[in-house]
Amino acid sequence: MREIVTRITEITGSIASLSASGVGLGELAEIQLPGRKTLGQVIRIAGNMVTLQVFGGTKGLSTNDRVRFLGHPMQVKYGESMLGRIFNGSGAPIDGGPDPVEDEIPIGGPSFNPANRIIAKQMIRTNIPMIDVFNSLVVSQKLPIFSIPGEPYNQVLARVGMQAEADIILLGGMGLKFDDYTFFKTTFEASGVMNRVVMFIHQASDPVVECLLVPDMTLAVAERFAEAGRRVLVLLTDMTNFADALKEISISMEQIPSNRGYPGDLYSQLAARYEKAVDIQELGDITILSVTTMPGDDVTHPVPDNTGYITEGQFYLHNGVIDPFGSLSRLKQNVVSKVTRDDHNDIMNTMIRLYADCRESRNKIAMGFKLSRWDETLLAYGEDFERELMDLEVNIPLEEALDRCWGILARHFETVQTGLKDSLVEQYWPARDADEKQAV
Questions:
Q1: What's the CA gap between 47 and 44, in Å, rounded?
Q2: What is the pTM of this model?
Q3: What is the CATH number of the domain that holds 10?
Q4: Torsion sign (Cα): 15, 16, 20, 24
């Protein structure tokens, strides 16, 4: 451990500046305050002037306090003893338990070697029909949930964590309200999955700098579990809070702002985290499902706009449901009707096409046009589609959801009206009496 000791020359927000030499970008520093110590990380070097972001905030910090550089970047514990545990934004336990016994690993490293990645071709089942049937989640995929504050995106995230086929679940919470934090904790405990969950939680009342560490710590631990052959699901909420923390730090450093005040490297900062999603040949994998809230429901806001260029689609959570027209999974073609049932692709396309026709019929009502019998059929179909498939309370396996799709079609249409292949109709079209029993 190096013994470079210096004094602070300037304090701005959560940023401290000092003169030092021989230090590296990202290196940790220990700041010795009266009666306590806190950590900082080197985020900029300009000649001999070094800028630190102070993890615990700069309250009580003075220019007379001494700084000792530690010679290594930020680290986090990794190991089996972390399972079932909850840590804060600086990696310290907040669940009342002891520190993990394993060694520390560095965070924020490069993404996994692309040469050792394999093409995603396994589906992650969630028992949410609007995901499993219409926009399947694929192993090693990176997908955000686009939504607005007030929507049940954390409930969707927690439900996926409870029900997804994963060995390890890692939750990175950024800027969470206390109620949201306790919701995740009690939900995972009540569902019996807490023994394979690791949570890194930055609450809204915690220092803003610690928000930046949460995704890096979460993903560093995820990579080690994946290298050990485990299937890992990473849940991140809310990446807009992460971006806002980046903006606040960049303003404190007096950087020239880009779009709406966000730093010019926002895309790179987001991509560096999302690109950790990987399926490692002959080892494990990492799948990332995140939340991106859109201020004013504006998809052109810099955070969702940049995110859309990085990820492989998005789930659009709107009015309490996953909107089939705003949602997209670009990797679903790797699994639909390949690792799933042979009717999956055709029934998915048919259901969405007819639901789009239903929305056109609803527009006719709004414009005062007279409805045809076909319009009335589509309207009845749309109501059943929304109640039996789109409602987030629906919790059924993929095969049952596909059967339900066939049942809804048989309830409202003749086979020729659907345009489905005869071979599929012969195999999956339900008998009329069976469908009537299902409707009851």
A1: 10
A2: 0.90
A3: 2.40.10.170
A4: negative
